[in-house]
Amino acid sequence: MRKLLLTLLFLPSTAFAQVQSGWGNVGQQEEKGFSWTDPLWPDFWMAWTPATLAVFVGIFSAIALIGVLEGFKYRDGIERRGVLGLTTTLGDRLFITLLGSAYIFLAWLGLVGQPVWTPLFVSVGWGIFVFWKV
Amino acid sequence: MRTENQKAWFFVLPVLALVAFNALVPMMTVVNYSVQETFGNNQFFWEGLGWFEQILRSDRFQAALGRQFLFTFLILLIEVPLGIIVALSMPRKGFWVPVCLVLMALPMLIPWNVVGSMWNIFTLPKIGLMGYFLNDVLGINYDMTQQPISAWVTVIVMDVWHWTSLVVLLCYAGLVSIPDAYYQAAKIDGASPWSVFRYIQLPKMKTVLTIAVLLRFMDSFNIYTEPFVLTGGGPGNSTTLLSIDLVKIALGQFDLGPAAAMSLIYFAITLLVSWVFYTLMTKDDAQ
What's the farthest any 2 CA atoms get from each other in chain A? Predict the structure, then answer.
């Protein structure tokens, strides 16, 4: 009788211990935080992820920014001859920056490999150089 | 004088919408696929930049890229000078003008896969007219289904046959637009035929020649149908150009991730070379 009482007394505490150790979550969907690399809309054929979406948002906002600058701020005298002997506008410089960055990344991936922090900094440097001098 | 009217942009809008659907959306999808792995069923798993690394370092891609550059180089080397020569020797006026123009336009009117099968039947040893003639009449050992060299020669001759007339027609349009006064002035000065070509005809053809070189570069760099129908990329891998290899990876092996990465690299190369061509050829105009 005393044994039974003791057992009954301790039963809730074992349940509490189970919850504490995480057994209460077995079979339930684990709550996951935001991830840049998970599918944004599962089962959608375009297979967006936050990371790739961010890349395109970046590119399109850069184009939009350049367009606004060329259309309203620097209406005249935007063209100039740079160090490469090319006559470029802001849009040309953005194009050269983006294409050059793609090649910097590809060259690094082909010759060295991941991670790609170094080409990222090189590309930013390339972009600054192009907008400044080319 | 600047015009302040910006209404022309509205006429560009339909094209923009069309391009968004047939180029931009597929392009963005390819970028998404290139960093993920899929086993079908629209389920995707993050892969990062691994496919790019794998493709760039694979011997298979490098070999296909080398073949592609060789092919495009040979095509431009043959078709551009040949096109200029043919255009120069065409009559400028008279009865033969329309005859020549129609003859020149004919090859371009034939669909690409028909050109491929035509040349396939034409060049097959034993049964093809050209294959039989070369092997059994002239005694040249020629078999484009077995020998890589023969296959390459056949693919190049086929492309020259199909597309030189594009260069010819563009150059001819440039030549026709030169006023007679230029030739008269050259004659008075006693200019040699070479000087006439170098200082009158070539500068006048420059704009159309730029377009011709660009079009021939892009078309020959992205060529798929004709060599695929003619040789199927064989014998072995000898005529497997980039696009043929790409389709093998994407649709044959269903490796969408690597194929997407490869097509982006392909796109970057086409874009850079076209931009360099265009910039170099229009550079003097800006000065």
Answer: 99
